[in-house]
Design brief:
The protein is of the alpha/beta class and 551 residues long. The protein is 39% helix and 17% strand. The longest helix has 16 residues. The chain has 23 helices and 18 strands. The protein folds into 3 domains: 163 residues, Rossmann fold (3-Layer(aba) Sandwich); 131 residues, TPP-binding domain (Rossmann fold, 3-Layer(aba) Sandwich); 180 residues, Thiamin diphosphate (ThDP)-binding fold, Pyr/PP domains (Rossmann fold, 3-Layer(aba) Sandwich). Helix 1 runs parallel beside helix 7, helix 13 packs parallel to helix 21 and helix 18 crosses helix 22. Strand 1, helix 2 and strand 2 form a beta-alpha-beta unit. The strands form 3 sheets. A 7-stranded mixed beta sheet has the order 9-14-13-15-16-18-17, with helices on both faces. A 6-stranded parallel beta sheet has the order 2-1-3-4-6-5, with helices on both faces. A 5-stranded parallel beta sheet has the order 10-8-7-11-12.
């Protein structure tokens, strides 16, 4: 057995069943070893960012890591953005990066680079270069354990070619994961006492706290004690829809998030990070915790979030309370000229049960949450690290992890172009994905940010960096060229028909939604002044404005 064969068997024995690959010369023995391991599914991506984003989407839904196979430092670099998103989402990924043979490194060949330095950007907890074929199995087993233990992470194993092709490979048995326990008892007691004394307490849930068991425990506490419950702005995976507890997500815009947290005296984190502004803005604070508010960590990402919330509920006598659950509610099918809001309305109207909803529509999906809150229960995956180009690859991985569940991916036109190659993989694997591309011919979110950061009014040269209309992008034709059934729509009736067809037919589909910008020029000009005025407005009016901007 050579090194690659021992690596493959070790992965499969540890439960890693899928490898998303974009291989090169140094990885050929790994590629050959795929034929020796029937338990490993190999999925080819035409760009490394698709492979890494697919591994991310797979792990979010499978609750276990997939492997990636990348070619040298350049290939790793090409996949870095979606590995960044996985890192921020605490998603388990086992990254296998091929390297030159150990004796070849000294020659500084054309593709030679410092792979470990590149890898540490996204794998701060586990980066290792295998040194010997006989030790490779152990290295792989430790990489899988590092990725899968809480908190999940990207574990990067660098595989020199001679270690891969060398004889004497020894597979290694899976290593046990460390035990996971609830958060500290003293914090539990403190939070319970604060709620008992009637202080203004809010729970901020993230990570695994946004799955059904934890949501139910938090909802019982909220129902009995009247405390607020929030979800982080970009959840890794949020279980939602009819029959599940309702949780309010913090807004992307710092001004709106600050409004949501206004008056909170104690903020309790459950597998979540203390909220900060997405970017720095002139004259605005970065820390969104209200002045004088104390932050408590009920459960860190390395601890059992659901158990911690259940213990808190029990200590408050709320473990048998009846939680408030979302009632079934669907909007009517939209009519007339197509807009981004009407696309979201159609998704809420037609979405089937157990769908996986992927949101990378940026400004075009501002209404998605309110339009789908009462739809049949589903999972929502979002842009955890903010690096665009995640949505289409996530859809690939999610569809492979859950082949019996429909995947609906809502994607902006700008972000779609980062990883458009994912469509080819969808067609090749015949995945049940409906990709909806909002074509508004603009980097709309950047136009919004141009106003918010206080940059001077953009002239022609600046504006040319934020528009996508010249030449026009035609996503339906691009999809057809990669083997995906696709249609272009400009009315709600056309979209409804295309969406119903896509949901009824197997295999991948793309619907191009030609829509105007959700935040047009006039709205963008008013928005900064409106946000600036929020703190001075009566709370009722301020919250009404918030619901209008980001419901």
């Amino acid at each position: 057995m050579n090194g690659a064969q021992s690596l493959m068997k070790t992965l499969a024995d540890a439960g890693v069943e899928v490898c998303f690959s974009n291989p090169g010369t140094s990885e050929m023995h790994f590629v050959a070893a795929l034929d020796d391991e029937p338990r490993m599914r190999a999925v080819l991506a035409l760009f490394e960012g698709v492979a890494t984003g697919a591994a991310d989407g797979y792990a979010r839904m499978a609750d276990k890591p997939a492997a990636t196979l990348l070619h040298l430092g350049c290939g790793l670099g090409n996949g870095l953005a979606n590995l960044h998103n996985a890192r921020k989402g605490k998603v388990p990924v086992v990254n296998i990066v091929g390297d030159h043979a150990t004796y070849h490194v000294k020659y500084d060949a054309q593709l030679q680079s410092d792979i470990e330095t590149v890898a540490r950007n996204v794998s701060p907890g586990f980066v290792r270069t295998s040194k010997a074929t006989a030790e490779l199995g152990r290295d792989v087993a430790e990489a899988v354990r590092a990725a899968q233990g809480l908190p999940g992470q990207v574990a990067t194993l660098i595989l020199p070619a001679d270690v891969s092709w060398g004889e004497g490979g020894v597979p290694h048995a899976p290593l046990p994961l460390p035990n996971v326990s609830p958060g500290p008892a003293d914090v539990l007691a403190t939070v319970s006492k604060l709620i008992d004394t009637g202080k203004s307490v809010a729970l901020l849930l993230g990570g695994h706290a946004l799955r059904e068991p934890a949501l139910l425990a938090a909802a019982r506490i909220a129902a009995q004690r009247g405390i607020k419950v929030f979800a982080e702005v970009f959840p890794t995976r949020l279980e939602r829809g009819a029959g599940l507890p309702v949780v309010e997500r913090l807004a992307y815009m710092a001004e709106l998030a600050s409004l949501q947290l206004q008056g909170v005296e104690h903020l309790v984190l459950v597998d979540a990070k203390s909220p900060v502004s997405f970017f720095a803005y002139p004259g605005k604070k970065s820390d969104l915790v209200p002045e004088g508010c104390q932050v408590h960590v009920l459960a860190s990402p390395a601890q059992d979030a659901a158990a911690s919330l259940e213990l808190l509920a029990k200590s408050l006598g709320a473990d048998l309370a009846r939680p408030v659950l979302q009632k079934p509610l669907r909007p009517e099918a939209p009519r007339g000229r197509l807009t981004a809001a009407k696309v979201c309305k159609a998704v809420g109207h037609f979405m089937p049960k157990d769908a996986i909803l992927i949101d990378e529509g940026i400004t075009s999906t501002l209404m998605l949450g309110v339009m789908t809150c009462g739809a049949p229960r589903h999972d929502l995956l979002t842009l955890t690290g903010g690096a665009i180009g995640q949505g289409l690859p996530n859809a690939v991985g999610a569809a492979i992890a859950c082949p019996k569940r429909p995947v609906i991916a809502l994607i902006g036109d700008g972000t779609a172009m980062y990883t458009i190659q994912a469509l080819w993989t969808m067609a090749r694997e015949n995945l049940d994905v409906t990709a909806i591309i909002f074509n508004n011919a603009s980097y709309s979110v950047l136009n919004v940010e141009l106003e918010r950061v206080g940059a001077r009014q953009a002239g022609g040269k600046a504006q040319s960096q934020l528009t996508l209309g010249s030449p026009e992008l035609n996503f339906a034709r691009m999809a057809q060229g990669m083997g995906v059934h696709a249609v272009r729509t400009s009315t709600a009736e056309e979209f409804n028909k295309a969406f119903e067809y896509a949901l009824a037919q197997p295999g991948p589909h793309l619907i191009e939604a030609c829509v105007p910008e959700s935040l047009n020029r006039n709205k963008r000009r008013v928005l900064p002044w409106m946000l600036k005025a929020l703190p001075s407005l009566p709370p009722v009016l301020a919250r009404a404005i918030k619901r209008k901007i980001a419901p």
